[in-house]
Amino acid sequence: MGISEKNVAVVPYKRVRDFLKSCNPQKKSERIVLIYGPGPGHPEEYKHFFLEIKRLLVNRNVFHIGICLGHQILMSIFGFKVKRSAKPLHGQTTTFCIPNWSGVFPKKYWGELLEVQCYNSLVVDTFSFIQKFPAIKEFDLVLKYYQRSFDCLAGRFTRGVSYQFHPESIATSRGDLFFRVIFNYFSKQELSKD
User: How far apart (Å, rounded) are the C-alpha atoms in residues 67 and 162?
Assistant: First the structure.
């Protein structure tokens, strides 16, 4: 996608807490994108990172992308519950309809059906959000989500997106579409709130 390796840091698990604590960009030129990667495990096993992630969610110079477990961690912070999936998908594809999220997906792809690769036994339960409304306002977030039944397959929020599936997988068609939002973020201050 034209991103230089010198601009990418892969942070080993043992250094995540220190890395998150050190992230505090203040100037527009210091903006960063954090990608919270896939598993293993349950979001509860990573609660010791939640405080630092919450601090970064309100930082206007940080953009967040969650993938699989990363998606579940972000959605847990926003107040959703994560539960065992009724239909676990391991190495299987499912159909995803590109939502009309301006600033995330180009308009010409809205409504297009794509195959996306899944490896998950857990899902974010949007019914839990309906039952117990989380304090989204503390993050100054506009949150939208794409669901199938009550399972959240993707979320869009101020300064971030998250995916239950693996957009980086070779079995995901047009995987680049799910990462274009990075370039949109660097060209604008944050996602529009439509």
Answer: 6
CB count within 10 Å of CB 94 equals 15
Beta strands per DSSP E along 1-158: 32-36, 62-67, 81-97, 113-125, 143-148, 151-157
Alpha-carbon gap, residue 134 to 128, rounded angstroms: 10
Which residues, in sequence order, are CB contacts of 18 under 8 Å at separation 6+?
none
Structure tokens at 5: 């390796």
Place 138 in a pLDDT band, splitting at 50, 70 and 90: low
> Whole-angstrom Cα distance, residue 178 to residue 7?
19
Look up the CATH number of domain 5-187: 3.40.50.880
Q: 3-state DSSP call for residue 131? A: helix
Nearest to 81 by CA among 127, 46, 22, 115: 127
Domain layout of the chain by residue ranges: 5-187
pLDDT, tens digit (0-9, with 9 covering 90-100), for 50-95: 999 999 998 889 999 999 999 999 999 988 899 998 877 788 898 9
